[in-house]
Amino acid sequence: MDAVSGFRTRLQAIREQLDGLDYTVLPRMSDAEMIATMTEIRAISDRMVAGAAVITDAVDRANATDHTTGTPLSDFLAMKEGRTSSRGLGEVKRASKIAHHPGVRDAALAGDVSPDHAAVIGEEIRRLPRGQMSGDQVDRAAGLFLDRAATTPPERLRKATPQILEEVAPEAVPSPGDETARIAAQRRRAIKNRRLAWGSDGEGSTWFSGQLPDLEAHQLIGTLQAFGEKGRRAERDEAQALRTQRAEGAINASEYLAARVELEHREARTTGQRMADALVDMVTEMASLDKIPSAGGQTPRLVVTLNYDQLHDALEGEIAAGMVHGATGEIPVDAGSLRRMCCEAGILPVVLGGESQVLDEGQEHRLVTGVIRRALELRDGGCIFPGCTVPADLCQAHHIIPWWDEGPTSLENLVLVCRHHHALVEPDRYHSRDQWRIVVDPDTRIPRMLPPERLKNHLPQSVADSVAGGTGSATVGEEPAPTGAPSSGENSAPTVDSNPGEDSAQTALVA
Description:
This protein is mainly alpha-helical. It folds into three domains: 3-171, no CATH class; 302-363, no CATH class; 367-509, no CATH class. It has helices at residues 3-19, 31-61, 64-69, 73-81, 85-99, 102-110, 115-127, 135-149, 154-157, 161-168, 176-192, 214-248, 253-267, 271-288, 308-316, 335-341, 370-380, 419-425, 461-469; strands at 195-200, 206-211, 303-304, 321-326, 329-334, 350-352, 358-361, 367-368, 395-399, 414-418, 437-440, 447-450, 508-509.
């Protein structure tokens, strides 16, 4: 058997051994056995990843897919493995880094370093001034990188490059002037290579891809992390506020437990989910502060091109969805999401005839004037959900009686809720869903949240009885107090005229 046949035979044997692994035995392992098994299979996985990278680099160097299929390797991987072309190209470049230096390549194949370490080391070796270094000096540098890899995370290895170069080739260390010139050139390349792209994945999500120069990227990342940490602090504050409200009798046991369960769902978010939410929160705050510039003379708005009757039916939930024109094309949305979107962007009704010709272009509706917005912030202070500490500037104005149900845009029919809790209180067309609701105290005119009836099935019996029996003027099962007309009396909230002419700064949108 020649070497090539032997290699292929062993590869097939590995596949057969993998097929024979019985993962159903895991529950019968002791903790120590599971840990040992996990460690071993992860080490094998790293070696296989390194092997795949070395072979991928060999295919790339030989232009094998070009010769055999007439297709570049990155595109071949995209078609063969269901990747995007850019992802395929990234895999090819990563393979080149892992296989770049023979010593690093062999260490990765042997499992002495991870593929991530090997990729970073290969990239850093390429950045060395090799034109001023001998082959032995490059090999010594690779060896020092490998030594440090045992105790250093991959990304931190980059910081070791100047010290390693100083040790193996002090004569090649750039002068301060050369280093300044190198950094300036690096900055110019980074600015030239900046990009941001997005597109629909066809499954209801939009993907983003891009890169920024380090300075701008650190600013963006720092801002997102600040919003993420703000969310974590808000969760801690909300938990403490719930305990305080319960102890002081401001909320009953059912409201406390319902809010605590909901809070636990947010506390369970992954880091990636938190950063995604942070990006949305950052944009939301910019919008609330009127910091988003106009585009083509207009601020961003939601344009729904439906037959007017279809739009009305979609908002009422009588048809399943509408089509929203977004940055990535037409986006189908369900009725509930469409109603919530109406809270966050102006709707420009474009009334279409039978042949989709534009019959009339209306004005934006449901916008909250600055006067009403300020009154809401003064009254509610922030999200009114029990224990929620999201401040007013990150909240959305919400109609208690929906706009599509002829609810007025007036202070008495509006409350502030955060983006997350807004989804919990948005009612359906026929009020058939047992959900969190908003009621208004008939004396103070102050709104409050009430938990769903079905929650009592998950509560202790004593608490469930209190939910079923009610506790007064604002209890589960009570119909909301009328909010469409101004109230009178000593404790009534001030009435604010919703005429946009009183304040041209329409900064908040409602549904």
